[in-house]
Design goal:
- With 185 residues, the chain is an alpha+beta fold.
- The chain has 2 domains: 2-73, Orthogonal Bundle (Arc Repressor Mutant, subunit A), CATH 1.10.10; 90-182, Beta Polymerase, domain 2 (2-Layer Sandwich), CATH 3.30.460.
- It contains 8 helices and 7 strands, in the order ααβααββαββαβααβ.
- A 4-stranded mixed beta sheet has the order 6-5-4-7. A 3-stranded antiparallel beta sheet has the order 1-3-2.
- The chain is elongated, with a radius of gyration of 19 Å.
Length: 185
């Protein structure tokens, strides 16, 4: 949706990056790695966004860093637009999960809730084959235009870890999350 509105997939990814990381600075090669786009298209779109005055740049130690212009007049409106687009992601992801009736628990963490410390972005518990899981993650990555990390537990593994008070599992369950499916309890 936003790609159509902003006419460029690279620009939409850059806007996502800067609007959801408003206090961070990035250099060009770092940006290309994070958003998975080609160097030339990233440079071109950074130049466009700088002309538009949405982002600023500064050079430091032979690197040029880019960051969000906090004084940009339309910043609150643009941020709200991208937040609302994320809500649409949730609906699309939830709709897509209906194909997989073996999923008992699905939560969106990390990237989806702006938690940079999270070790994963999607938590899945249930019966789903490796092929289906790979397809499922690819579909979500298409929706978000973002490479995502995921954690999958079978019901048996989840129950075992839960009974053992597994620290990793409890950190996932207690972290900030958007729970889309919870049929475990």
């Amino acid at each position: 949706m936003l790609e159509q509105l902003f006419s460029s997939r690279t620009r939409e990814k850059l806007l996502n990056l800067f609007l959801f990381n408003q206090d961070k600075r990035f250099y060009v090669r770092e940006i290309t790695r994070v958003i998975g786009e080609r160097l030339n298209s990233v440079r071109r779109e950074l130049s466009n966004l700088e002309k538009f005055q949405l982002i600023k740049s500064e050079s430091e130690e032979r690197r040029k860093y880019y960051y969000l212009n906090q004084d940009f007049v339309l910043l609150p409106e643009m941020t709200n637009l991208f937040v609302k687009a994320r809500l649409l992601w949730e609906n699309r992801i939830l709709e897509f999960t209906k194909k997989y009736d073996g999923i008992r628990y699905l939560s969106l963490v990390g990237f989806f809730v702006d938690d940079d410390e999270a070790k994963t972005d999607i938590v899945i518990v249930g019966r789903i084959s490796k092929v289906e899981l790979a397809s499922f993650i690819r579909e979500i990555e298409k929706i978000t235009n973002q490479p995502l990390r995921y954690t999958h537990f079978t019901i048996k593994e989840y129950n075992y870890r839960h009974s053992m008070t597994d620290r990793f599992l409890y950190n996932l369950l207690e972290s900030k999350a958007i729970v889309l499916i919870d049929k475990i309890r």
